[in-house]
Structure formats: structure tokens, C-alpha cells
Specification:
The chain has 290 residues and is an alpha/beta fold. Helix 3 runs antiparallel to helix 4. It binds S-adenosyl-L-homocysteine (SAH). S-adenosyl-L-homocysteine (SAH) binds next to strand 2, helix 7 and strand 4.
């Protein structure tokens, strides 16, 4: 981790152990194509086979301090073992950064889904979160963060910006790997949902903003990492301008066919781009929805 160990009300023992390991600089391998998915396809494909039965160990359920209906979102039957299995699959798909894998293991993804979908939280699929948006597929969340961390600072990230908070899951994962995380969402009810999801976790270093992320966040720029969780036909120049020199932006780019792109700022007026793999994200849209 780039800073001090984060404290949560939930047991993060697994993260603590792994985070203290030294992470070697990793070669960012060019991945084979990830299967494009939609929430509908995922639900159809995975709906019938949810989590393995008989979880071996029950994780402590995160509950809001002053009990509210939010506690309904917690799913007490999810075992740490199921999340570990998800992380093992992500590693098998090629994500090697142990800090990223540890962060994925520490964040309870089921907590970011409505109860009806919580049993599917640990399959490798995007799932609906309302307003025609999705929580991203776990593999791609891990992959994007791994690529962003593979910088010349040995993975140190101070200011990170996420465009497309959605339900807040990726922001939570990022909070374990960056000093400050800023995340922007254009759909007000999703911004509120993310706030509600994250509040009980009491993560001190996430700032959520309601607005158009295509404009970036000039007030707190520059960022040494920017992640877009929605695909535009191109990456907005405002975001490129808000990268530090040496900073890395990872974004899906395209329409029906999308590719994951890494853009590194190499000089004041110079950026270098590389293409990583196929992907499938919801579209990046301008403006806000109240
Ligand atoms: N980060 C989420 C993924 C959310 S899906 C996760 O953890 O799974 C992508 C989100 O991007 C949607 O909620 C969508 O509303 C949002 N989005 C699209 N265009 C945007 C824009 N210009 N500014 C901010 N958010 C945007």
C-alpha cells in the first residue's frame, strides 16, 4: 500500500498479511480477449448456479453503526472462501499484482449488490445495479487497477480519479491501493447508492462527487492514476490534461467493439497509448441525470 494501513470495521486480516509483502515490479502482460458480457447475459448464464453450498467460514457482516435498512444489503451466508475463490480465478486469468489481489479479497463485493443478486456477487460477471448500469466484472476491475499501478513509482498512487462510481465497489478496492480516491458519478441516485454502500465501511480516503466525469476534477488535479468505468469513443482531453507526468489512465474505448486502453503522460504535451485487450463497458455519457 502506498500509505498507512486502512482500518475497517470488518476483518481485513487477509489484506493486512498480503499487503505487507513486497510487490515486485510486474510486467503488464498483454491479455487475451476477455469475453464481452452484459448484465442480462450474465444473469442468464450464471443465475442458475449461484454460490457453492456450505460455506466453510462465515465472514463478519458489515452493518451500519446506527442500524438502518442498509443492513438488509449484507449477506451473512457469504464465506471468505467464496471470495478467495473469486480472487484465485482472477489470478488464473492473468492478474499478478498481489496487492491488487489482496484488495479484491478484502472488499465484500456482495455488499454492493441488492439482496436478490448478492448470491451472485462472486461470479466473474458484471451485474445490474439499476438505471441501466452495472457493477463491473471483478476480473476487469482488478486488471485495470493492476495496469494503473504498474507505474515508474513502483505502484505508489497518491491521487486517483475514477469516472463512473456506480455502486462504489471499484472505489472501495482503489481505496486500499491509493492515498486519496476521488470518484465521480453522473446519475444522482447511483451517487447516493454508492454513498449508502460505502458509509458503513467507513473508508476515510474516498471522496464521491456527483457530476460529469468527462470534465475531470480540476479542483484536485493532477492525478497519478485515472480509471474510466465507462466507454467513450475517445478519452476526453480534459482527463489527459489532468494526469501527472508519469501518470497512467486506463479506459475502455469504443462503441459496440471496445478495447481497454492505457494512456501514459510522458511529457507536458505528450501522451503514449497502448491497447491491452477487448472489453465491454456501459457507455460514457456527457452531462448529469438528477
Ligand atoms: N465503478 C463501478 C462501475 C459502474 S458502471 C463499479 O465499481 O462496478 C459505470 C458508471 O459510469 C455508471 O454508473 C454510469 O452512470 C457512469 N458514467 C457514465 N458516464 C459518466 C460520466 N460522464 N461521468 C460520471 N459517470 C459516468
Amino acid at each position: 500500500m502506498s500509505g498507512k494501513t486502512r482500518q475497517f470495521p470488518l476483518s481485513l486480516a487477509s489484506l493486512g498479511n498480503k499487503a505487507s509483502r513486497t510487490v515486485q515490479a510486474k510486467t503488464v502482460a498483454v491479455q487475451k480477449t476477455a469475453t464481452p458480457q452484459t448484465a442480462t447475459q450474465n444473469a442468464a448464464q450464471y443465475g442458475a448456479r449461484a454460490l457453492p453450498q456450505s460455506p466453510s467460514r462465515i465472514i463478519p457482516v458489515v452493518r451500519p453503526v446506527h442500524g438502518s435498512s442498509d443492513s438488509d444489503r449484507a449477506m451473512p451466508m457469504v464465506s471468505e472462501a467464496v471470495r478467495k475463490a473469486m480472487v484465485a480465478r482472477i489470478a488464473k486469468q492473468g492478474v499478478k499484482d498481489t496487492k491488487v489481489l489482496a484488495a479484491m479479497e478484502a472488499i465484500p463485493r456482495h455488499f454492493f449488490l441488492e439482496p436478490a443478486l448478492a448470491s451472485q456477487a462472486y461470479i466473474d460477471a458484471s451485474l445490474p445495479i439499476g438505471h441501466h448500469q452495472t457493477i463491473s466484472q471483478p476480473y476487469i476491475v482488478a486488471r485495470m487497477i493492476e495496469v494503473m499501478r504498474h507505474n515508474k513509482q513502483g505502484g505508489v498512487l497518491n491521487n486517483v480519479l475514477e469516472i463512473g462510481t456506480g455502486c462504489g465497489y471499484q472505489a472501495a478496492v482503489l481505496s486500499l491501493l491509493a492515498k486519496e480516491v476521488y470518484s465521480i458519478e453522473r446519475i444522482k441516485p447511483l451517487h447516493e447508492l454508492a454513498k449508502a454502500n460505502l458509509r458503513p465501511l467507513r473508508i476515510p480516503n474516498i471522496r464521491l462527487h456527483y457530476g460529469d466525469g468527462m470534465l475531470g476534477f480540476s479542483k484536485v488535479a493532477p492525478f497519478d492514476g485515472i480509471i474510466l468505468a465507462a466507454a467513450g469513443l475517445e478519452v476526453p482531453q480534459a482527463l489527459l490534461d489532468q494526469l501527472t507526468i508519469g501518470g497512467r489512465l486506463v479506459a475502455p474505448v469504443g462503441g459496440r467493439h471496445q478495447i481497454l486502453q492505457l494512456i501514459e503522460r510522458v511529457g507536458k504535451y505528450e501522451w503514449s497509448a497502448s491497447t491491452l485487450e477487448d472489453c465491454h463497458f456501459v457507455p460514457l455519457r456527457p452531462g448529469t441525470v438528477g
